[in-house]
Amino acid sequence: MTAGPPAEAVDRSTRAAVVTLYRLTAGHRGAIAVAAVLTLAGSALGLAQPLVARHAVDASGRGQAVWPLLGLLGALFVAEAATGSVGRFLLERMGEGVVRQLRLGLVDRLLRLEMREYDRHRGADLVSRVTADTTLLREVVSQSLVDLVTGGIVAVGAVVLMAWIDPLLLLLVTLTVAVAAGVVTSLLKGIRCASEHMQHAVGAIAADLERALGALPMVRVHRAEARETARVGARVQEAHDAGVRTAKLASVMSPAVELAVQGSFLVVLVVGGLRVGGRTGSLGDLVAFLLYASYLVLPLSSVFRAVGLVQRGMGAHQRVEQALRLPVEHTGPSVPAARARARTRTRPEAPAAAGRAALALRDVRFGYAPDRPVLRGVSFTVAPRRQVALVGPSGAGKSTVFALVAGFYEPDAGTVLFDGRPAAELGRDACRRRIAVVDQNTHVVHGTLRENIAYAVPDAPDAEIRRVVELARLEEVVDRLPGGLDAVLGERGSTLSGGERQRVALARALLARPALLLLDEPTSHLDAINEAALTTVMKDVARECALLVIAHRLSTVRHADHIVVLDRGRTTGQGRHEELLATSPLYRELASGQMLRPGGGRSAGRAPSPS
Fold this sequence. Notes:
Layout: H1 14-24, H2 29-61, H3 67-110, H4 115-120, H5 123-165, H6 167-214, H7 216-221, H8 225-277, H9 283-324, H10 337-345, E1 359-369, E2 372-382, E3 387-391, H11 398-405, E4 413-418, E5 421-422, H12 423-426, H13 428-433, E6 435-438, E7 447-448, H14 449-453, H15 462-471, H16 475-480, E8 488-489, H17 498-511, E9 516-520, H18 528-541, E10 546-550, E11 562-567, E12 570-575, H19 577-583, H20 585-593
Parallel strand pairs: 3-10, 3-11, 6-9, 9-10
Antiparallel strand pairs: 1-2, 1-4, 4-5, 7-8, 11-12
């Protein structure tokens, strides 16, 4: 599912937003300080210009030379532009650095989340937090912070000088600006809420589009393009509505600011002109005050716009913070070694070989939801260099056993042991170093064939890669592809067949030389010839490491050293093929469905049933 707008109470004030912005700039405070000094210097140079202009006007009225003052005015203008440009560059660069730090933190977090979190959140929505949300934050940090800093400094300086020149005119300007400030404040909360909904809708667009593109062959075959377009279109409409609401509020805010600034300028012009006409003020003072009033137009407008953008950005920041708070896997030991050993001694006694087993499960219980148990007490052992098969009807818990062995989840009760040591004592990293997995949904990523095979061991020598290519029977694929091992595979390995992708995954797993290899329905995409070849490969691999195989085709595992029968989350039978045919009704039923004779061959004249 996609996480909606946060339900918890959030401080939406501008002050809280600015505090959040300041917190985001941790590690960049030095650049901010230098930029602030340059900005302050540039603002001081800018604020000095109306005073020079005032003197130039008064000097001209007295018939004095004004060229030196005009030269000084030009120099001040150039110096202000230079210092302002450097300060703005530093702040922009700081904004890029903040967003880079956020993106790296998000990527690292998302790749380490607990597996349950991927069940609760849609992948594309999480990706949009790294891309779309942080892009909006970049604009906020790099632009809004610039505008708030420069606009605030200039506005404060201008107000101080305006108060020095004419307090009465300043009071009139303050009253008109206060009206605009009241309008802006009343709109900020709505802008932030609309922005949050828009960002969530954008994430939902990415999630629904990925859903459709990831199953594009199914969509095309079932002529569901229009339905999927309508589904994504509904999300697009949500984003459109939220964006229109944001634009509507912003469109009210901008004219309010402009009218207040223009109104204050007209008030100053009229009242100040009357006072000059009545000889209660000088023309130079009026010119200087008007320049400061015009000087306020840009910074005040930029400050108000920046405040609105900050509120929009806080919606994106809220989604980023939600992602950064999601729980991650704990890869180290979860309990001290002594406690782990004590826990294993309280469990029912395992077979004598368990202490030397590559893998052992002792009375393991687990459920994805508290009230829906999947495993209800599973116990079995995988001895070193032996092939153990897990069989059972769909929903028996076979894939869940693999998920627990791979450390994707932790058992609710019972113990998983590697080499006689509890997984909780070893930690996920240590456990995963001992295993490799060939999933039924084989993962082939965009890149070369060599990169896919060497994914687990990026620096593997060519001799090792050639060894696993031969073991996985990939020689024909290497010869067929232009470039051989350096051929670029398409997205999700689209240039390979299902069976070829499975063999690539097998080669990748073997390259890591695991102590335990997990194979999930390894023959599901193979024809009869390649299935027979893989059976031979599995025998060869079993000389190097232990194998735990999930199989629906019993022909794949009838020669396994040990077979474990699962039914409704319980171990209902264990033994070799012939033993289980005699002792396990469920296994006998499964074997009958696969048309296997007790001797291990297929019934004459019958074709194999589809898996």
